[in-house]
Amino acid sequence: MTQRLHLVFGGELINPSTNAFKDVEDIDIVGMFPNYEAAYNAWKSAAQRTVDNAHMRYFIAHIHRLRDEETEASPTEELDN
User: Fold this and answer.
1) With CB atoms counted within 10 Å of each terminal CB, which end of the chain scores lower, N or C?
2) Alpha-carbon distance 44 to 49, whole Å?
3) DSSP characters over 7-71
4) Is residue 5 over pLDDT 80?
């Protein structure tokens, strides 16, 4: 069974029209979730708590898409190459 992990995180952006964080040290890690539905619910809750701050954004990262063990790694991923 494939595990589809999702990371929910957010923070204050430098400019609301970009995805650059104002302070990377201050990123809010909401948590890791076993499926999209749980991640979406956590994302929605975090986003609603900060709705009054236009610079605050939360994101869902599809961790399972970052690394597929069945696919050969690119040369940049391998330190020995």
Assistant:
1) N
2) 9
3) EEEEEEBSSTTS--BS-GGG-EEEEEESSHHHHHHHHHHHHHHTTT-TTEEEEEEEHHHH--TTS
4) yes
Q: Is 75 helix (H, G, I), strand (E, B) or coil?
A: helix
Q: What angle do CA 57, 35, 63 make, to 5 degrees?
A: 65
Write the pLDDT tens digit of every residue in 6-27. Answer: 999 999 999 999 999 999 999 9
Please report, as a single letter, which amino acid is at residue 22. K
pTM of the shown model: 0.77
User: Quick one: tokens of 59?
Assistant: 């994101």
Token digits of residue 72: 């050969």
User: Does residue 48 carry a pLDDT above 90?
Assistant: yes
